[in-house]
Amino acid sequence: MDNEQIDQIIDKFEAKPGSLIMILMDIQHHNRWLPKEALERVSERLEVPLGKIHQIASFYKTFSLVPKGRHEIHVCTGTSCHLRGAQKVLDAVEELAGIRPGETDTQTKFSVETVNCVGACALGPVMQVDGTYHGRMVPEKTADVLKSVT
Q1: Listed residue (71, 70, 68, 113) closest to 90, CA to CA
Q2: Superfamily per CATH, domain 71-148
Q3: CATH 3.40.30.10 in the chain, residues?
Q4: What is the pLDDT of residues 130-142, one digit of tens each?
Q5: By the 8 A CB rule, do 148 and 98 touch?
């Protein structure tokens, strides 16, 4: 992402420091992560200390300071999903993607995260891929779901 693209996003929010989180969300939406150069540009344009921006970006789980895969996999490990076998689903995802939660594969194809709840407890265990919910998951269905997005 170049400075011109970043500036367009900042200008969309009228370069208001109070819009910092929205600006970061927009940059991440377009770039899939928040590169250091983007944070520096935001800091410069909004006249907000880089340390404060980094603090905010690292506090919220929605932001990533490392490159994310083209396909984001979230496995719910909340109580309901856990009791219905979420760990086995997560184990299958880890094996198929070759990465653990919090990681991105070397081809930046997949990123895997665990989440405490996706709000679909009756469908547990639930796996969310690129925003699409897959309920009543079992390890055997995991490969089919991942193949369907590639």
Answers
A1: 113
A2: Glutaredoxin (3.40.30.10)
A3: 71-148
A4: 999 999 999 999 9
A5: no
